[in-house]
Amino acid sequence: MGRGAFEHNYQSLDLPELRAQLPDPEPVRLPLAWDSAASAANVDLFCGDNLAIGQWLLTRGSSFRLIYLDPPFASGKRYAARINGAKGTQSRAVHAYNDDDDLDAYLDWLQPRLALARDLLTDDGTLYVHLDWHAVHYVKVMLDRLFGRARFLNEIIWCYHGPSPITSAFKRKHDTILVYTKSRAYYFNADAVRTPYDEATLRTFRSSRKAGFGKMPDLERGKVPEDWWYFPVVARLHGERVGYETQKPEALLRRIIQASSAPGDAILDLFGGSGTTGVVGAKLERHTTLCDSNPLAIEKTLLRLRRLDPLPDARLWRYHTGTPAQASGDA
User: What residues does 89 pair with on adjacent strands?
Assistant: First the structure.
């Protein structure tokens, strides 16, 4: 996990009310330390078990056009975060969450949360499930059964560079994002995510009208991205990283949110992690709900939201159920 000149990003709040041990009969709203400015977005942060919180949202009639899930990957690892950094002062590492259950236990834990996400989608909603090679094939079968194979939309490959000690195999440098829709009438805004054509493609089409087998694309409008995306990992994005080991880059969530939701839509992240979905959702004027069982993750999210201008209308909730928390979210 990167350190150095950006130690001041690795702060902590240590809010004692998030660490209460007694169960709550329903979510308890906690006061925030700042007044929200006029903003077109709001963010609800829930600290507690995401299954209980999601079921509570369902009983209240909540639904979401976009749900992004970045659960633990069944990696067999334990993850850390960095806190109490400042300019001239090195931060220290603390435990963040465990991802060391065996595969069967992991799948048994994940299945009801995937089913809940399906039930919380609007009829035109889309679910993105972010995983890697450890369990993605097992989860794909599970999602086929929950949604039906016809509702599978995409297998997105997020590619990235980085150091690796592997010398006995090809380096594992991609994650897989499975995309499912609630119905055939799903929302997808292709124009919101178009990217410029490669310069070599532009030269080819400009040199010959036969380059595209008689089909000339709108070169000025750009293209809809393929299902493989390159974005740098957060370790290479010094201005973004907040000392949460599995933090995801804002550019990745920006593309997902812009493609599958519109300004003013409600979006949900049941594994909020360091809060990337909430930060990008607020910037794009979405109404975002984030859950995480780890108070440290919620505190990292609050720190990131507090740096936005204008400040989003943020609400903080605690919902401890008295049951042991499983792994925290990754985003």
Answer: 86
* Dist. CA 50–CA 256, nearest whole Å: 21
DSSP 8-state code for residue 18? G
- Greatest alpha-carbon span in the chain: 71
How far is 301 from 291, CA to CA, in rounded Å?
Answer: 11
Q: Which residues have CB under 8 Å from 196's CB, separation 6+?
A: 222, 223
Q: Which is nearest to 126 in space by CA: 106, 108, 143? A: 143
Tell me the pairing of strands 287-292 and 28-30: unpaired
Residue 142's H or E segment, with its range, is: helix 136-147
Tell me the pLDDT band of 326, cut-offs 50, 70 and 90: very low
pLDDT tens across 257-313, in order?
Answer: 999 999 999 999 999 999 999 999 999 999 999 999 999 999 999 999 999 988 899
CA 151 to the chain's CA centroid: 21
Q: 181 by DSSP, 3-state: which? A: strand
CA atoms within 13 A on the CB side of 142: 20
Locate 115 and state its tokens. Answer: 């089913």
Distances (CA, A) of 313 to 32, 101, 214, 294, 309: 10, 37, 51, 22, 11
Q: Which residue has the tokens 């001239």?
A: 88
Q: Report pTM.
A: 0.91
Give the other-Cβ count within 10 Å of 228's Cβ: 11
Give the position of tokens 């130690």: 7
